[in-house]
Amino acid sequence: MGRKANTLFINPKRFGSLHKPCMKEMAMFLNCMAANHSDMEACARQKELLNACMDSQSKKNRKSWGSINYQLQRLSRGRK
Description:
GO cellular component, one term: mitochondrion
Order of helices and strands: EEHHHH
Strand order of the largest sheet: 1-2
Structural class: mainly alpha
Strand content: 5-15%
Number of strands: 2
Pfam families: CX9C
Organism: Sphenostylis stenocarpa
Distance between the termini: 25 Å
Protein name: IMS import disulfide relay-system CHCH-CHCH-like Cx9C domain-containing protein
Low-confidence stretches: none
Shape: elongated
Radius of gyration: 19 Å
GO biological process, one term: mitochondrial translation
Protein backbone atom coordinates (compact mmCIF):
# COMPACT_ATOMS: atom_id res chain seq x y z
CA MET A 1 0.00 0.00 0.00
CA GLY A 2 1.15 3.52 -0.52
CA ARG A 3 1.04 3.81 -4.30
CA LYS A 4 -1.88 4.47 -6.58
CA ALA A 5 -1.73 4.00 -10.34
CA ASN A 6 2.09 4.02 -10.26
CA THR A 7 2.20 7.84 -10.19
CA LEU A 8 0.73 9.29 -7.01
CA PHE A 9 2.31 8.42 -3.66
CA ILE A 10 -0.05 8.30 -0.71
CA ASN A 11 1.50 8.17 2.73
CA PRO A 12 -0.89 6.15 4.94
CA LYS A 13 0.99 7.15 8.11
CA ARG A 14 0.06 10.78 7.56
CA PHE A 15 -3.66 10.05 7.56
CA GLY A 16 -3.55 7.48 10.35
CA SER A 17 -2.92 10.08 13.03
CA LEU A 18 -5.88 12.29 12.14
CA HIS A 19 -8.22 13.10 15.00
CA LYS A 20 -11.60 11.45 14.49
CA PRO A 21 -14.16 13.44 16.46
CA CYS A 22 -17.52 11.91 17.34
CA MET A 23 -16.41 8.42 16.32
CA LYS A 24 -17.61 6.88 19.59
CA GLU A 25 -21.02 8.57 19.33
CA MET A 26 -21.41 7.53 15.70
CA ALA A 27 -20.54 3.92 16.50
CA MET A 28 -23.08 3.88 19.33
CA PHE A 29 -25.77 5.35 17.05
CA LEU A 30 -25.08 2.89 14.22
CA ASN A 31 -25.06 -0.07 16.63
CA CYS A 32 -28.38 1.07 18.05
CA MET A 33 -29.86 1.42 14.57
CA ALA A 34 -28.67 -2.07 13.65
CA ALA A 35 -30.00 -3.59 16.87
CA ASN A 36 -33.40 -1.90 16.55
CA HIS A 37 -33.88 -2.49 12.81
CA SER A 38 -33.46 1.21 11.87
CA ASP A 39 -36.04 2.46 14.37
CA MET A 40 -35.25 6.16 14.87
CA GLU A 41 -37.48 6.51 17.93
CA ALA A 42 -35.63 3.77 19.80
CA CYS A 43 -32.28 5.48 19.12
CA ALA A 44 -33.33 9.05 19.95
CA ARG A 45 -30.83 9.36 22.83
CA GLN A 46 -27.86 8.24 20.68
CA LYS A 47 -28.98 10.55 17.89
CA GLU A 48 -29.07 13.51 20.29
CA LEU A 49 -25.58 12.68 21.56
CA LEU A 50 -24.24 12.45 18.00
CA ASN A 51 -25.88 15.74 16.99
CA ALA A 52 -24.51 17.49 20.08
CA CYS A 53 -21.02 16.21 19.33
CA MET A 54 -21.21 17.26 15.69
CA ASP A 55 -22.50 20.71 16.64
CA SER A 56 -19.64 21.19 19.08
CA GLN A 57 -17.08 20.67 16.31
CA SER A 58 -16.41 24.02 14.70
CA LYS A 59 -14.61 24.74 11.47
CA LYS A 60 -12.30 27.24 13.12
CA ASN A 61 -10.71 24.50 15.25
CA ARG A 62 -9.86 22.30 12.27
CA LYS A 63 -6.70 22.63 10.23
CA SER A 64 -7.56 23.48 6.65
CA TRP A 65 -5.92 21.48 3.88
CA GLY A 66 -6.67 24.16 1.34
CA SER A 67 -9.08 24.08 -1.52
CA ILE A 68 -9.32 21.17 -3.92
CA ASN A 69 -8.19 23.41 -6.77
CA TYR A 70 -4.99 24.31 -4.90
CA GLN A 71 -4.26 20.65 -4.22
CA LEU A 72 -4.83 19.70 -7.88
CA GLN A 73 -2.55 22.51 -9.07
CA ARG A 74 0.12 21.41 -6.60
CA LEU A 75 -0.03 17.84 -7.90
CA SER A 76 0.05 18.88 -11.56
CA ARG A 77 3.16 21.06 -11.01
CA GLY A 78 5.23 17.99 -10.24
CA ARG A 79 4.29 16.23 -13.48
CA LYS A 80 5.63 18.88 -15.86
